[in-house]
Amino acid sequence: MKLYFSPGACSLSPHIVLTELGLPVETVKVDLRTKAMDGGGDFLAINPKGYVPVLQLDDGSILTEGPAIVQYLADRKPEAGLAPANGTMERYRLQEWLNFISTELHKQFSPLFNPDSTEAVKEAQKKRLSQRFAFIAQTLGKQDYLLPSGFSVADAYLYTVLTWAGFVGPDLAAWPALQAYMARMQARPGVAATLAAEREAKKS
């Protein structure tokens, strides 16, 4: 398998999952501004959508969209327990969280990274995100991870998105449960190893 990624982008989520699962993968760094890839080539030829993550399977087929990729990866190694079994209510709860993170957190950060956004727009987005953070903090104040069963692919996604708050806000200090969650995630060997690998990739 190949994972097309950009350090610090939402592709960190499947990167963490791959490390946690111990699945063999080749990583290919993508410059999201120029669409160039390490080693040459046009990323748009891989994914016409123009963004990461992209997972190229061993048969050459392409899978895009983070929530789909992380579930595919979890199902490659079900004994690891990173996603409940398909068809169960627990799996639908996982998908519920993945959809929430994707629509109510991930995309809500976009205006904060956009240099053309006005301050009024940014403040409105931070207020919206703060409401979502408060909602998540209610769950994480009662249990260590999003699912009662423990760490799952949804946590890899949530952690990835919450790291962006350190660059553009809102400040997670307002939610001690979220700060404790981030520390708990960073203490996981798989997460720490992935972060180190992406820091190295960013240097090159």
Automatic annotation (TrEMBL):
Residues 1-81 form the GST N-terminal domain. CDD domains: GST_C_Beta (cd03188), GST_N_Beta (cd03057). It is an enzyme of class 2 (transferase). Keywords: Transferase. PANTHER family: GLUTATHIONE S-TRANSFERASE GSTA, GLUTATHIONE S-TRANSFERASE-RELATED. Residues 87-204 form the GST C-terminal domain. It comes from the Bacteria. InterPro entries: Glutathione-S-Trfase_C-like (IPR010987), Glutathione-S-Trfase_C_sf (IPR036282), Glutathione_S-Trfase (IPR040079), Glutathione_S-Trfase_N (IPR004045), GST_C (IPR004046), Thioredoxin-like_sf (IPR036249). It comes from Thiomonas delicata (Thiomonas cuprina). Its EC number is 2.5.1.18. It holds the Pfam family GST_C. This is Glutathione S-transferase GST-6.0. GO terms for molecular function: glutathione transferase activity.
